[in-house]
Amino acid sequence: MDRFRHPLLGGNTLWVLGLDVLLVIIFQLASANGAFLNPINVQAILTTYSQVMMLVIAQTMLLGAAQIDLSQGATAVLASVVAGTVLVSMSAGGDPGPHITLPVLFLVTIVVGLLAGVINGVLVGWLRINSLVATLGTLGIYLGTAQVITNGENLYGVPLSIQSAFGSVYLWRVPLSTLLAAVVVAVVWIQFRRGSFGTHTIAIGSSEKAAIRNGIDTRWHMVKLYSVAGALCGIAGAFDLARFTTTDIGGHGNDALAAISGAVIGGTSLFGGKVYFFGALLGALLALILQSGLVILRFPPFYQVIAIGFILILAVAIDSFRNRNEMR
């Protein structure tokens, strides 16, 4: 398949990479005393990027099957809330230490994300509900459940060992969470590219009817696809909780939008059948560079929302233009 032969150069990878570099240069020159490339700011971008990597890769896989997930942010929030609640109850008599808190953190968040993904997969794959409608509904359910658990307030009292042993740890000046995220992405990419999982996903996105005729159980594949995506969202929730040692109930409203934008800008098609992981990662980085640059230049946070919306519209326009040309 052509879409798998050039994983580093396919899609919009080269021009998105060029745009990322251009924006870095512009913000570096425009910021006072070159603050944009200050090590602290770069580390902050990379730490946030670890969460974004999980979400954009999950969304990229789903788009490959012509599906979408609007509940990503809510899934990450719910996973962090459940894990945080468990960790708070465990530390009532004192912090039990990272050898206990970190395994519990990742186990709980992954399980919660996995279950949320299974629900999405059943709704889309078995009940045949449009993915846009299904995940818009579960967005409200997952976020509402998180708010019920915490009474609508952020959760505090999470053991600090998850931050001191992971959330604020750096290796070679790179956040440990970013390195772990890169490993997860590499594993997912290899499995997607070399195994039947990726082949079936692309086949469904290209033509679901043809996939069924070729013996692919599209219902179960949707459940598996959304389950993996949900688990990745759970990991993003773990990164977030380990970074701040508190939940962020209202801070993930634009997660899905940013992930979709990054994936489509990187060359992955909204209409299914094309997946470019590396391009998606660069597209997601583009949004983070833009957000951080606007903050450095002291633009109000409202402009960040406008910028993300503009990027999404641009991405969809590019994707539509590309598909029209291919159909000629």
The assigned CATH architecture is: Orthogonal Bundle
Largest beta sheet: what is the strand line-up? Answer: 1-2
Helical percent range?
over 70%
Q: How many structural domains?
A: 1
How many runs of DSSP E, i.e. beta strands?
Answer: 2
Individual helix count: 14
What pattern of helices and strands is seen along the backbone?
HHHHHHHEEHHHHHHH
CATH topology: ABC transporter involved in vitamin B12 uptake, BtuC
* CATH class wording: Mainly Alpha
Calculate the mean pLDDT score and round it.
90
Radius of gyration: 19 Å
Distance between the termini: 21 Å
- Secondary structure class reads mainly alpha
Note the main sheet.
2 strands, antiparallel
Approximately how much beta-strand content do the residues carry? under 5%
Give the uncertain stretches in residue-range form: 1-8
Identify the overall geometry: globular
